[in-house]
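Hey, I was hoping to borrow your eyes for a little while. For a while now I've been wondering how a particular protein folds. The fold is given in discrete form, as structure tokens running alongside the sequence. Could you read through the record and tell me how the tokens relate to the sequence? Take your time with it, there's no hurry, and the full record follows here:
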Amino acid sequence: MSPAETTSRFDFDAIGTQWQIETEARLDQELRRHILDRTERFDATYSRFRPDSLVSRIASAPAGGRFAFPDDSLALFDLYDRLYDATDGAVDPLVGRDLELLGYDAAYTLRPAPGAVRAEHARDRPNWAADVERDGPCVLTRRPVVIDVGAVGKGYLVDLLSAVLDEAGHTGFVVDASGDLLHRGPRATRVGLENPFDARQVIGVAEVRDGALCASGVNRRSWGDGLHHVLDARTAVPAERVVATWAVAERAALADGLATALFFTGADRLAQSFGFTCVRVRSDGRAEISPDFPGELFGRRAAP
């Protein structure tokens, strides 16, 4: 959205990242408070970094239990069901404990647990298909599990806040969560695609109109040699062959989830279940782009 189109901008920090909401019409204080309240309620449910969250209570329940999520969880967990199936289990919201053991924990220790501890967990690693039963908005568990909605959650919150703006009558806006964004309005917003090997450069551009663009890269949350937040849930091994992805879809939750899925599963396979376009950069710098991606690459290689 160009400056000429924007009359209001709202910046805030939430769920560990920076947010920017730009609207054509004025964003009043009451609606800003509503946005912050909606964000807080989401965080209080899904954050594994807050000891008071619902997710943390599930993780500390010694024998599991029945836990009631808000109704908005239905679409979120339905999407995880589909992504789990389409990636043969590589995208799994029960990857949280593996992230903790690699050092991406609530205290941000960024120090992996000893190999013996990780090996013990691997012998009985929980998975979404076997260790969770869903009953409407309720989740039933039989042992402690650490839910991490990082593959989809930020995009899903973008959708939720976009719905708040829709309900308030806003027809032109961008909700941007540090690069995961949803656009509404007649004129597209132009977004640079950051070079995963050099954040000072872009390797292309996308033009997003009435849809969502989400990105994922191994350079954004990394803390050691080969250690980053994009894990194959089947093995708990960080992705190696792909270093960056961008997905364009109708909704941000879907684009966010597919941006993660593309690290493990090819676009052709995912296209059998989902509608999207994408760009993917491999670790050797080779770039792949969908024929109908709404943008362009400046070259077919990044510079590793």
In short: The longest strand covers residues 198-208. The chain has nine helices and 18 strands. The longest helix spans residues 29-46.
